[in-house]
Amino acid sequence: MKLTIMAINENKYLIRFCQVGNGSKGGDAILIRLFDEKDNETLLLIDGGYKETGTAVIDFIKNNCTTTKIKIMFNTHPDRDHISGLKTILESDEVTVENLILNRPWRDAKFTKKMFEDKRITDNSLIKRLKDAFFLAEDVEGIAKKKGVKIYPQFRDENGKLELLNVLGPSKELYKMGLLASDKTPESYIESGLGDYTQVKYTEEDYEEGKEIEWYDDEVTSAVNQTSLILALHLGNTKVLFTGDAGKVAIKEALRFYKSIGGNPKDFTIVQLPHHGSRKNIDPEIINEFGNPDYIISCPPDGESEGHPSRRLINKILEINPKASIYMTKNHNFIFRKNVEINCSVQQPAKASPKMDGK
């Protein structure tokens, strides 16, 4: 799908990072409100969190927006904490969805039985296994079809140029390799070059101002997270990077591609830290690609116990750039806006934490 949106007023927008989850379990849901010169509104939604998040998004749209139609709904990847709310929204009769961006592994990865070691696999059994592994994506696809929503797979446009909205990743090849390396697919004989997630626990250490924060490059996110969509939104001087749950491999590839089409990562004014602020998805090399953006983390109230967000990552960012502003959705929604009036309080950015426990 060519992501075309009506001519917009670049000086009026609202980007709402929704508070998702409770306890230590969070998720992503990002509602984007765009306007044209006559104040006609266009809605974009990136992920939907859990079922209750989807209900909250519906209520917000009904009570605050001048349209109840979502122009484009994106699912970055079909994890429960990103896709469940999209199912709720699609089932609702109170809002409508025009286009759904949904990558379906059983169809869009272009797998064949010849790629896998188990010779008992047939093309039909492979499709069934993938649908079972990604059953929420199949549910969403089925509901969207019944509602007449247009469904499109989406990968980066290799012949792309800078637009209002660009898909920076994944490439089709990385999407396939990430799935092959994951625990969602049968054992493959194809070398993906991606290692899958393994639990690593480092002992607690004190944080001291002026002391270099040690970084552990052996920590990696799950291979399936490398298949997450990465998006760039350009609104005049406001440039936003949305990363979903993408891993280091995916983000580095996306930033290389961004440069190849004329973008400069240092121009991003807002950067979403991937996977709810996990340090397994990003590293100092990536942080150094950026200038001085506002960082936003979609994380739950008690997520630190799971490394969401990672205090080590927050401290490392502040070590690299002491002026960095890092915001979170732990207990409430967070809004970036321009020329849109809304009643909200001001949040103070995160400060360096004096203790780190390996998270």
Characterization of this structure:
This protein has helices spanning 51-64, 80-91, 105-108, 123-133, 135-147, 172-181, 248-260, 284-287, 311-320; strands at 13-17, 29-35, 41-48, 69-74, 96-101, 150-152, 165-169, 205-206, 230-235, 238-242, 270-272, 294-297, 325-328, 334-338, 355-356. The radius of gyration is 20 Å and the shape is globular. The chain is of the alpha/beta class. The relative contact order is 0.15. The strands form 3 sheets. The chain has a 7-stranded mixed β-sheet. Strands 7-9-10-11-12-13 form a 6-stranded mixed β-sheet. The model has no long low-confidence stretch (mean pLDDT 90). It has a single domain, classed as Ribonuclease Z/Hydroxyacylglutathione hydrolase-like (Metallo-beta-lactamase, Chain A). Helix 1 (51-64) packs across helix 2 and helix 2 (80-91) packs parallel to helix 5. The chain contains 9 helices and 15 strands. A hairpin with a 5-residue loop joins strand 2 (29-35) and strand 3 (41-48).
Mean pLDDT across all amino acids = 90
Residue share in helix: 25-40%
Count of domains = 1
Shape: globular
Given the helix and strand composition, which structural class is it?
A: alpha/beta
CATH topology description: Metallo-beta-lactamase, Chain A
Percent of residues in β-strands:
15-25%
CATH level-four homologous superfamily name: Ribonuclease Z/Hydroxyacylglutathione hydrolase-like
Number of helices: 9
- Per CATH, which architecture? 4-Layer Sandwich
Distance N to C terminus = 39 Å
H/E series: EEEHEHEHHHEEHEEEHEHEHEEE
Extract low-pLDDT stretches: none
Q: How many strand units?
A: 15
Largest sheet: 7 strands, mixed
Overall radius of gyration = 20 Å
In oligomeric terms, what are we looking at?
single chain
Biggest sheet, spatial arrangement of strands: 6-5-4-3-2-1-14
What's the CATH C level?
Alpha Beta
